[in-house]
Structure formats: C-alpha cells, structure tokens
Amino acid sequence: MTMSANASQETAEHSGLLKFYSAMFYACSSFLITMVNKTVLTSFRFPSFMFLGIGQMIVTVVVLYAAKISKTVQFQDFDRSVFLKIFPLPLLYVGNHITGLASTKKLSLPMFTVLRKFTILMTMILEVYVLKKTFPKRLVYSVVTIVFGAIVAASSDLAFDVEGYTFILLNDALTAASGVYTKKKLGTEGLGKYGVLYYNSLIIVIPTLLASAFTGDLHEAVTFEDWVESTFILCFLMSCIMGFVLMYSIVLCSYYNSALTTTVVGAIKNIAVAYIGIFVGGDYLFSWTNFLGLSICMSGGLVYSYLTFNQKSPGSNAKGAQELKIHITQDSTGKYTAN
C-alpha cells in the first residue's frame, strides 16, 4: 500500500494560493474603500461618519440575508446562542467602523496610513496573550522598525489633530482586537465566516442608528445638501458596498491566514495609499522628516511582509511530503512489515 506524496503537495499548493488570493483581495478592498471614504468625508465634506458606517452595515445585512435565502451561503438561524457565540465581536466591529471613519475624516491620507502601523504591534501583542503565539526575533525587529518610522513621521505632522490622533489610535486597538477575535470565532460551530459577518452587522446596526439619532448625527446626515448630487450619491453607495466587501475580505483573509498576516497585508496596501496621498487629496503638508518617517515605516513593512509570507508552512516542503510514502509488504510467515 502506498500513500502518494502528490496529493499532499497539491493540497499545500492549493492552500497557498488561497492564502495569497485572499490576501490580495483584502489589500485591494482596503485600498479602494480608503479612497472612496476619503472622497465622501473630505472632498464632499459629508458630516456624518457614523451614518456612513450604518449604511455599510445595512448593505452587509441585506446582501448576506439575500444570499442565505437563495441558499448561496449557509449559516445558522438566529437564536439566543448567537449572542454568546459572537460576543465581543459586535462591539469591536462598530467601534472599529466608527473610529476608522472618524480618523479618515480628521487626518490626511499619509498620516492616517502611518499611524495605522501601530495596529501591527498591537495585533502581535494580542496574539501572544490571546492566541498564545510566539514570533521569531527578526519579525519583532521589523515591527520595531515600522513603529519607529511611524513615530518619526508623526513627530513632524504639521497638521497635528488631537481628536484625529485619538480616533486613529483607538481604531488601531479595536482593529487588532477585532482581527484576533475574528480568527478565534471563525471556528465556532454554526457561524463560519458568513455568520460572523451577518450577525456582527445585524446585532449592532439598530443601537448604532439610535446613537446616531440621539447625538444629532442622523439629522446632519439627512439634511446634507449634496443628496441631490448624483456624483455624491454614487460615491456614498460605493462606500456602503465597499464596506461590505472590505469586511468580507478581512474575514476571508483571516480565515485562510492569521490575524497578523491580515494586518501585514494592510501594511502593504498602506505603502500605495501613503505615497498616493502625498499627491492626491490636497490635505498633506510636506516635510522631509515626515517623508523620511514614511519611508522607514514602509521599508519596515516590506521586510516584515517578506519574512511573513516566506515562512514555510508544515507540509509545503516537497522532501517532507515524500516521507509520507510507505510500502507495506507481507513475508512468507504472513507477517506485515513497513519500509
């Protein structure tokens, strides 16, 4: 009897492709939604980042419910056990949404992407304490380089905004916690990646809508004067749709990779966003110190990404797979031997 190594190799290659494609999907989605959100909140001066987040949640619920009804996707029906299974993801989800949109509005694109680098360090720390993971020193050193570059860039921010910096650091912490707990919850029976997405949005959308109405945020959004502009409506709808796409891509990337890998992919995306933001958007105040910090930060991100994506996973080595080949023979006495 022979156990073929080819099947093992094929599985390893298949999972490797899924990891890569899911990571690229997340990178593209994250890049596009950052640009769209920046257009809605800054270029059009839309006053309500909370209302925009509500729109993204509603689209997520509608799309996934329609997919469930049409049996395109499957996840458990709603019951009381859902709350216990998914907690605390809904709280982290809405906090991540709101602080992310608020910081996008308050900060220039380059500074937004620089300060988002602290998410990598926070994710690494949470994976150590929550998921009990360990990391090689070279990865830790690359993270230190990223954080150092972020500090250098932020130290020369001529458009320093206390509220914006507070929102972005809160967003970093919530993103890290959301990524780690999403990875933890994806294995929960009955939920899966679609159930996590659906119930996250469903549970939190009504409380968020009430909070928006109570604070006057909803009134500002409804009375916004550019609702008659077709260009604004198109951008708003694109942001809502991309909100769903982004959340799906995050869950998909976390499903096939780790929370830390998902964060690394975000750092790769930020390289393009930061440098494009220098020339696009009109709210970046150039300084050499800031530009140097950006470059250090991005260089560390590239090294970190390279080290992370070039780690060999168990079973991916062809020689290791060949060791699975076992011959079982029967001798003249009737006994079985393996060689």
Automatic annotation (TrEMBL):
Alphabetical keyword list: Membrane, Transmembrane, Transmembrane helix
Membrane protein topology class: Multi-pass membrane protein
Spans traversing the lipid bilayer: 20-37, 49-70, 82-102, 114-132, 139-159, 165-182, 194-215, 227-252, 259-280, 286-307
GO CC terms of this entry: membrane
Primary localization class, coarse: membrane
Positions of the Sugar phosphate transporter domain: 20-305
Location in or out of the cell: Membrane
InterPro entries found in the cross-reference section: Sugar_P_trans_dom, TPT_transporter
UniProt protein name: UDP-N-acetylglucosamine/UDP-glucose/GDP-mannose transporter
The organism of origin for this protein: Cottoperca gobio (Frogmouth)
Gene name, Swiss-Prot/TrEMBL: slc35d2
